[in-house]
Write a structure and sequence with these properties.
- With 284 residues, this protein is mainly beta.
- It has 4 helices and 25 strands.
- Strands 20-25-21-22-23-24 form a 6-stranded antiparallel beta sheet. It has a 5-stranded antiparallel beta sheet with strand order 8-7-6-3-9, with no helix packed on it. A 3-stranded antiparallel beta sheet has the order 13-10-17, with no helix packed on it.
- The radius of gyration is 20 Å and the shape is globular.
- It starts with 18 loop residues before the first strand and ends with a strand.
């Protein structure tokens, strides 16, 4: 409203013409809509801040995540809404969403897993699911799990959601070598803040999507007290400490997820003109 501090559009579904009903009284908009919940069915679903591709990739959704839709445009095939996992707002392809069905029971525990039309590895795969995608297992046969109508996944590539990992660094190390992708959020390609978010999300700690948002979470820790799992921030960048000296981060220098001595990364980033470390945080 007039005089109020504007809300972060990354985390609040608000446009001049439309806003989420829960924001009524906090923002001005021509109309307000209640959310219609959907479930992501595409293995990875791109999310953009604007309807076109010019603005670039803002984030991605993974199979099994919930997405609250406030507008669906049949002419463009796009849906505008908010990811329930991290609150991120944007436009996605409506074709990658279905009405909410069964709640997920398992998560993919490998870099990726093939989906088959039968419980037989010699059949031609239908698609590839990335690590951390969630599925609902309804049956098992010959070492495979039925995760959708006519879709089978190797059982050894799935872990029950109730069996949550305990070490975010171990989870992050599973992405070592993954290609760097600005806005990416999957084992097919990710950025620095997505690596931190996915690693901590696997152990039940919710991090926001972007590094500037994550930099306000947890508690500050001194540079000399850095330990396993601590987050180190630069302006527009974040990495996880494997131990007191080694940084694991998705970065454009390596164009992948890489581990290297923190002092080497710090010197290179400073030499490139991207500034010094802005803070260190402990979030769990």
């Amino acid at each position: 409203m007039d005089g109020a501090e504007p809300l972060d559009p990354r985390l609040h579904p608000v446009r001049d013409d439309l806003a989420a009903a829960y924001l009524r009284g906090r923002v001005s908009a021509k109309r307000f809509e209640e959310a219609t919940p959907f479930q992501v069915t595409a293995p990875v679903l791109d999310l953009r801040a604007t309807p076109g591709r010019i603005g670039g990739l803002a984030s991605q959704l993974l199979a099994g995540e919930r997405f609250d839709v406030y507008e669906s445009d049949p002419d463009t095939g796009l849906a505008w809404g908010q990811n329930r996992t991290d609150g991120y707002v944007g436009y996605v392809s409506r074709a990658g969403l279905d009405p909410v069905a069964e709640a997920p029971t398992h998560r993919v525990n490998h870099r990726a897993t093939h989906c088959y039309p039968a419980p037989n590895m010699k059949t031609t795969p239908l698609e590839l699911l990335p690590r951390a995608a969630q599925v609902a297992v309804s049956a098992q046969d010959a070492g495979f799990a039925l995760v959708g109508e006519g879709t089978w996944v190797p059982l050894q590539h799935l872990t029950p959601l109730a069996q949550m990992p305990v070490d975010p660094v171990e989870e992050a190390l599973a992405y070592l070598g993954t290609p760097y992708l600005w806005g990416g959020r999957s084992a097919f390609g990710l950025d620095c803040s997505a690596l931190a978010q996915l690693a901590y999300g696997a152990v039940g700690v919710a991090l926001l999507r972007d590094s500037d948002q994550q930099a306000g979470q947890g508690v500050s820790v001194a540079r000399g007290d850095l330990g396993r799992g601590d987050l180190v921030f630069w302006k527009g960048h974040v990495g996880l400490m494997v131990d007191g000296h080694t940084l694991l981060h998705a970065n454009a220098h390596h164009m992948s997820v890489a581990a290297e001595p923190l002092v080497e990364a710090e010197a290179r980033i400073a030499a490139a003109g991207d500034g010094a470390i802005t803070g260190c945080r402990r979030v769990a």
